[in-house]
Design goal:
8-stranded antiparallel beta sheet; 211 residues; C8orf32 fold
């Protein structure tokens, strides 16, 4: 994962903005929200492709067979159908487990570019890297009726691996859960101490973070 020029510029302007009103946020950071998603082109481009896939054109997308010789997208839809009446904690665990089974593949290998944010259907077809797991979980939980205003894709710096990483943050009544392709089960945000949050985003707004 790399940072686009627009995102880096937005972060710099925010960091040195005296007018920013910070609030306590993810991983103990201060965070300030914004509404303009335009600088976050990886996210907005993915949203456009996701919307296109939701139309008639989705029928032309290729299908990849799983170990059971069934289309992986069909397996995904079967999972969502099975979880339709399940409790939220069951839904969260099942979606996280299903997506984490996918092999990790870098964007340069998959798409020939350093950073590509895949739609859920692209991920089901080609697997992907950290933000692709998070995006697939986001749209799976959205399809199950969970409120996207309580979910964010969070880009962090992994202080152990010295590399950017992305996870899904899910705000519940009992606290924030982190769904991470590097961790088998959803965990409470406060239990993670090796992530430095950079920014987070959903379909309504974004947040920049500083410690």
């Amino acid at each position: 994962m790399r940072y686009s020029f627009g995102i880096v510029l937005a972060m710099i302007l925010w960091l040195f903005s005296p007018a920013a009103e910070a609030a306590t946020g993810l991983f103990g950071s201060e965070e300030v929200p914004g509404k303009n998603l335009a600088p976050f082109t990886k996210w907005t481009d993915m949203l456009k492709r996701h919307a296109w896939e939701g139309g008639q054109a989705a029928r032309a997308l290729p299908c990849r067979l799983g170990h059971d010789m069934k289309c992986r997208e069909d397996n995904w839809r079967d999972l969502l159908a099975a979880l339709e009446k399940a409790a939220d904690d069951t839904r969260i665990d099942a979606v996280n487990s299903f997506m984490n089974q996918a092999p990790y593949i870098t964007d340069i290998r998959n798409y020939g570019v350093n950073d590509y944010w895949a739609t859920v259907r692209e991920f089901l077809t080609k697997d992907g890297d950290c933000e692709d797991y998070a995006i697939a979980k986001y749209f799976s939980l959205k399809a199950l009726g969970m409120d996207t205003r309580r979910m964010r894709i969070v880009v962090v710096e992994d202080l152990n691996l010295k590399t950017p990483h992305a996870v899904l943050a899910l705000y519940t009544d009992s606290g924030v859960l982190i769904l991470d392709n590097q961790i088998a089960r959803p965990v409470r945000a406060e239990s993670i101490v090796h992530y430095r949050p950079l920014y987070s985003i959903n379909e309504e707004q974004w947040w920049l973070h500083r410690l």
